[in-house]
Q: What sequence folds into this?
């Protein structure tokens, strides 16, 4: 089965945290990739002089998504906290400026939403994206008035620490799966994701995956393996598996099976989806690889030292088999083939751990044994490098028994 099709992810993660420290009036200092904000100092003759800023953000999980701002003063600093709402899931927030306005006798703090650095490489869900922020403005002089703007519009900022700042975990509360179509066609593996966030308390937030996988004959159908939520990446993780129908006769044609997953969320909604078919991430397989198969061979308790991999080269069959064990951090961990690419004659394989979506998980390390099989358009690669969750565990060359640790993550 060719796995060159792509996930057209119509949604991706919203905001990511950006932190900084009080500077010397040289601009909006952050630890993130964006440093194009600016801080403009007033002359402070009859008021305040801005001496430095810091700014950080985090996504909002549940609750009211309306915009808000509040402020407080402490030890010569102005602290502003608030929520700004982006127009889509690719928006992030940054500090546009913090400047003393003599006419108003106020420090004006301007917060803006902009596209994330990689927004041009992905499609963005048209879902309102609330982003919580904290801005600290150092100043000299008397205590000023405070004005806060969001994307150029003034917000009614209140004095004091406002709003419920507790983080509520986003969870998947239910998943529904249905096969929507089946018929002769081509070898296709693709999926699209859309998200709708509830606009008020009591409204459901829904993430929908619509995809297509293929099998060798008309008795191919699909079933849901698991769904879970990855809080770190703000991602709905889903695995769809091929299955067999009960039909007595099977037409000899490649069969496309369309499916739909509807995941219901509590306290927010995933900004993106990562979908695998039979354990192989859609769009995770690069050119030059004809087919990729992945199976979990077993799971058992682990000590933490089991992470390893080995490689079998079969030139006659044009095939490479990677076998290994990846360690998950709890009893709900399973594995999938996150990525496989061929570069400069080397097959680079990354096997990732994900949650299988179970509600009750033992808090013990688990060793997940797996096998990944690859066939190729032409000659098989001369070398293989394997990583687990982005950290290299082995590399090996054809006709060589040597292996060594190597970090193949990028």
A:
């Amino acid at each position: 089965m060719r796995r060159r099709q792509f996930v057209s992810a119509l949604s991706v993660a919203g905001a990511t945290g950006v932190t900084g420290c009080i500077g010397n009036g040289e601009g909006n200092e952050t630890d993130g990739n964006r440093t194009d904000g600016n801080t403009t100092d007033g002359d402070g003759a009859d008021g305040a002089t801005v001496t430095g800023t810091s700014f950080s953000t985090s996504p909002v999980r549940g609750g009211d998504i309306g915009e808000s701002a509040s402020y407080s003063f402490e030890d010569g600093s102005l602290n502003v906290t608030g929520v700004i709402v982006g127009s889509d899931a690719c928006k992030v927030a940054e500090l546009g400026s913090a400047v003393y306005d003599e006419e108003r006798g106020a420090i004006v703090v301007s917060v803006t939403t902009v596209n994330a650095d990689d927004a041009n490489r992905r499609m963005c869900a048209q879902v309102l994206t609330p982003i919580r922020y904290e801005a600290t403005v150092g100043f000299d002089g008397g205590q000023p008035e405070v004005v806060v703007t969001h994307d150029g519009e003034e917000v009614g900022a209140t004095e004091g620490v406002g709003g419920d700042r507790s983080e509520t975990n986003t969870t998947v509360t239910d998943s529904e799966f249905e096969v929507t179509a089946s018929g002769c066609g081509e070898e296709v593996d693709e999926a699209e994701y859309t998200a709708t966030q509830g606009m008020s308390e009591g409204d459901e937030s829904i993430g929908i995956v619509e995809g297509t996988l293929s099998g060798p004959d008309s008795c191919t159908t699909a079933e849901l393996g698991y769904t879970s939520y990855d809080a770190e990446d703000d991602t709905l993780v889903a695995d769809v598996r091929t299955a067999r129908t009960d039909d007595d006769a099977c037409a000899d044609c490649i069969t496309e099976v369309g499916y739909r997953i509807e995941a219901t969320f509590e306290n927010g909604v995933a900004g993106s989806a990562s979908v695998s078919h039979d354990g192989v991430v859609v769009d995770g397989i690069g050119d030059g690889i004809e087919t990729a198969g992945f199976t979990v061979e077993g799971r058992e308790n682990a000590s933490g030292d089991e992470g390893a991999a080995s490689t079998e080269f079969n030139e006659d069959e044009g095939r490479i088999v990677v076998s290994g064990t990846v360690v998950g951090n709890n009893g709900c961990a399973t594995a999938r083939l996150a990525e496989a690419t061929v570069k400069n004659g080397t097959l680079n394989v990354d096997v990732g751990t994900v949650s299988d979506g179970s509600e009750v998980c033992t808090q013990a390390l688990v060793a997940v044994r797996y096998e990944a099989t690859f066939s190729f358009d032409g000659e098989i690669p001369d070398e293989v490098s394997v990583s687990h969750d982005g950290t290299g565990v082995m590399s090996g060359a054809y006709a060589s028994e040597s292996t060594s640790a190597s970090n193949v993550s990028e």
Q: What stands out?
A: Residues 284-410 form one domain. Residues 1-45, 162-166, 400-410 have pLDDT under 50 and may be disordered. Residues 28 and 38 are 5 Å apart (CA to CA).
